[in-house]
Amino acid sequence: MEVATVTSIISNIASTHLNLSNLKNQKKAVKAENKAATQQTELEKQSIQATLAEQQRKSRNLLAQQQSAYRAKLGASNLSPYSGSGQVVLDAMQKEHDIEDKYVQSQANISLAALKNSIERVNTQNLLRLRNLTNAQGQTIANSLNTLSTSMIK
After folding, report:
1. Res 153 pLDDT > 70
2. I want to staple 34 with a disulfide (CB 3.0 to 4.6 A). Which of 8, 102, 126, 143 is the partner?
3. Alpha helix (H) ranges present in the chain?
4. What is the pLDDT of residues 101-125, one digit of tens each?
5. Cα 5 to Cα 147: distance, rounded to the nearest angstrom
6. Is the dihedral of CA 29, 35, 41, 43 positive or negative?
7. What is the rounded CA–CA span in Å between residue 52 and residue 39?
8. What angle (nearest 5°) sits at the alpha carbon of residue 115, between those of residues 109 and 121?
9. Is the pTM of this model over 0.85?
10. CB-CB contact of 133 with 24 (8 Å)
11. Best CA proximity match to 38, nearest among 140, 154, 152, 124
């Protein structure tokens, strides 16, 4: 073999090794990005759930305060909060609370669904990037083998 051929082969091997190493590092970066996105999504999910729980707690406390104040007002007027218009008002307060609670729950569910769609999109993009990197890795190996065989034939 000539020196030029050997030099060409060594250069080709070094170049292939460098390309494969870069592709491997890119794959690691994509996997790390995917893991970070999943962790961030979980934190956001916990935040949404905590915010919902806090809103519901505050709403229940406010309802209890309003109902207690109304019962006290009725009691001061010698009226029963358990019958007649007093009961109607208390029931209306409860219904209003229930409607608001359903709305807040619905908004939280929408936020959680959007978060789920977002992480699924990121996961799909990362999977596509990994497949492209794997294909590029295979192509690099094929090109290297082709170049090596061409160099050896000459």
Report:
1. no
2. 126
3. 3-76, 84-153
4. 999 999 999 999 999 999 999 999 9
5. 11
6. negative
7. 20
8. 140
9. no
10. no
11. 124
CB 123 within 8 A of CB 85: no
Structure tokens at 140: 């690099």
Tell me if residue 1 falls in helix, strand or coil. Answer: coil
φ, ψ of residue 81 in degrees (nearest 5)? -80, 0
- For tokens 């406010």, what's the residue? 62
| Residue 14 tokens, joined | 């070094």
| Position 1 pLDDT exceeds 80 | no
Q: Which two tokens stand for residue 12?
A: 């080709």
Closest residue by Cα to residue 119 from 111, 26, 133 = 111
Query: Which tokens sit at 20?
Result: 């494969």
Domain residue spans in the chain? 3-153
DSSP 83: S
The CA distance from 7 to 11, in Å, is: 6
Please give the distance of CA 144 from its chain centroid, rounded to a whole number: 39
> Distances from the Cα of 72 to the Cαs of 59, 60, 68, 77, 81, in angstroms?
20, 18, 6, 9, 9
